[in-house]
UniProtKB/TrEMBL annotation:
Region entry Disordered, spans: 34-69
Name assigned to this protein: YmaF family protein
Basic and acidic residues bias (residue ranges): 35-47
Origin superkingdom: Bacteria
InterPro entries tied to this protein: YmaF
Amino acid sequence: MQDDYMKTPFDEMDLDYFQKPEIPGLHAGSMSEAQKSKDHYKKDGHTHGHLGATTCQDGHVHMHPGVTSTPIENEQGHFHHMKGNTSFDDGHIHQYETYTSLPIQLPGGYHTHYVEISTTEDDGHIHVIKGFTQPSKS
Ligand SMILES: [Fe+2]
Ligand SMILES: [Fe+2]
């Protein structure tokens, strides 16, 4: 965990529920291993948009607009694969790849997922992406 990113209200929450789901044979955060899980995707189903800014490092932030994969199911529920490049700022981009949390129910039949990712190191630093995906119905 980095010590130079801004604390958010989520740092004070019990995040057990938000932890990345257990995926057999998958080492959390490993991009090459993450590739292997693509076989588990449903061919159809809902996705979630995500957008926002990374934490600030080295005097700049990057944006991370994108869309998650379709659902991946396990015994506890579903989650999504999320992968992309950040925007180009301060002369470079970063890459990120992770799995979302399990669903977090919202009013009206919608749900969201929590995500916390460290980007790749580029130009001598990494950024952190923390937040919730845009709501979607299952
Ligand atoms: Fe950067
Ligand atoms: Fe979902």
